[in-house]
Write a structure and sequence with these properties.
single chain, alpha+beta, Beta Polymerase, domain 2, Hydrophobic Seed Protein, 8-stranded mixed β-sheet, two-stranded antiparallel sheet, 22 helices, 12 strands, 53% helix, disordered N terminus, binds adenosine-5'-triphosphate
Length: 415
């Protein structure tokens, strides 16, 4: 197992909650920080989403954290994992026993067996996520990696750890696009070839809709979602997910260029890419994805009402008419309409003005503030901002400080 001693561990100690975490596991040999937290540490980014891998029983380490930091534990014995959440909600840590994973059939959930660190790194999606940092006292700061993982990180490439990866678990195709978009990394040529072959072989159809939903929404929530959408189209993954799902980078770019507070970007973009579907087809697709009712309503409203909204708005003859047309709608529906090609400029500006007045600059924080506080990319940010705007509009909170603390509490309880 390659051993690379040069990780900047001082940076680790400054991350939120990590001091307590390190103290709690100092005398527990075989405890590693793993996955995105190690990758981001090496890239110099902060995050507060920590995954631990332990040699031995994940539940035992989660209980140790609960005893020493204070909090609750949820065990998932079928997957050899456990989650620890601190009492104040500021720390949520997923702990997994080192394991192998075997797939009884493509796209199925894996069968897991306890294993050593080396096997655990092989079962991961990409080499840049297959690094483990020892965090117990005696070996603190030692890095263990899948061969060449840190070289891939330096070269900014995404490489699968074995050739069956996308067939075993086609959700990794979406993860490939997400990391490509977020980190600006590219798939190395063999990985790219394997991804194409998996799409051509129809691998995405072997995965349950709920698992596709999780990864698809995570991709669409990225700040640079447009890059992921472009790659999705280039790979043909959109049509492989649904023949009428169209990853149209132009409308997505137009939507992400609109500056609107408290939007659920991932739902807006899901709606835009689903806009060629008629109502029954859309309902079936959202049902297949097992989108929660409230979210499905936002998407369906955008597709059904968004297409005709600007002409209706153009025909409104008074401020009261504009207000009664737009007020019942989700902001996502209005931005959907703005992103469609061909709207007339004056009407679009009227819709933008209405949106600005609706929020009235009431949201004094942005996604960047949450990221600076360590919230990772993903739908969590949009959801937290949307809830914060709603609480502000309802008069429950006001001012930047209250909003930031409200949004962080929302984000942390959402992990
Ligand atoms: P980040 O985006 O920061 O990497 P994340 O929330 O996407 O975090 P998780 O989904 O929590 O990452 O996964 C944590 C780690 O588990 C990943 O870094 C990866 O090593 C591994 N992992 C997650 N999903 C898969 C998968 N489908 N196949 C293989 N490995 C996976």
């Amino acid at each position: 197992m390659p051993y690379l001693p040069e990780v900047k561990t001082e940076a680790l100690r400054t991350l939120p909650g990590v001091k307590e975490l390190l103290e709690a596991v100092a005398d527990r040999p075989g405890t590693y920080l793993v996955g995105g937290a190690v990758r981001d540490l090496m890239l110099g980014f902060a995050q507060f989403d920590y995954d631990l891998m332990v040699e031995g029983d994940a539940g035992e380490v989660a209980e140790l954290l609960a005893d020493r930091i204070g909090g609750t534990v949820k065990r998932h014995p079928r997957f050899l994992t456990a989650n620890f959440r601190s009492t104040d909600g500021s720390l949520s840590i997923d702990v997994a026993s080192a394991r192998t994973e075997t797939y009884s059939e493509p796209g199925a959930l894996p069968e897991v067996e306890p294993a050593d660190l080396e096997h655990d790194l092989v079962r991961r999606d990409f080499t840049v996520n297959a690094m483990a940092l020892a965090i117990w006292r005696e070996r603190f700061g030692e890095l263990f990696e899948f061969p060449d993982a840190s070289a891939d990180l330096l070269a900014r490439v995404l490489r699968v750890t074995h050739d069956r990866s996308f067939i075993d678990d086609p959700t990794r195709l979406l993860r490939l696009l997400r990391y490509g978009a977020r980190l600006g990394f590219t798939a190395e040529p063999h990985t790219e070839e394997l991804a194409r072959a998996a799409v051509e072989a129809g691998a995405p159809s072997t995965v349950s809709g709920g698992r596709i939903r999780d990864e698809l929404l995570d991709l669409l929530a990225e700040r640079s979602a447009v890059v992921g959408v472009e790659s999705m189209y280039a790979l043909g993954l959109d049509r492989a997910l649904h023949p009428k799902f169209d990853a149209d980078e132009y409308v997505v770019a137009r939507a992400t260029n609109e500056q609107v507070d408290g939007l659920r970007q991932e739902l807006l973009l899901l709606a835009l890419c689903s806009r060629a579907m008629d109502e029954p087809t859309l309902a079936e697709w959202l049902d297949h994805l097992k989108l929660p009712r409230r979210d499905a309503d936002i998407v369906a409203e955008a597709v059904v009402r968004g297409a005709t909204l600007l002409p209706e708005l153009a025909a409104s003859e008074s401020n009261a008419a504009v207000d009664s047309l737009l007020r019942p709608l989700h902001a996502e529906t209005i931005v959907f309409a703005l992103a469609l090609p061909g709207g007339d400029r004056e009407t679009a500006d009227l819709a933008r003005l209405w949106l600005t007045e609706r929020s009235g600059g009431k949201l004094e924080i942005s996604g960047a503030d949450l990221r600076d506080a360590g919230v990772g990319e993903g739908p969590i940010i949009g959801r937290a901002l949307a809830e914060t705007l709603e609480a502000t509009l309802n008069g429950e909170i006001s001012g930047r400080e209250a909003q930031l603390s409200f949004a962080l509490t929302q984000a942390r309880s959402d992990v």
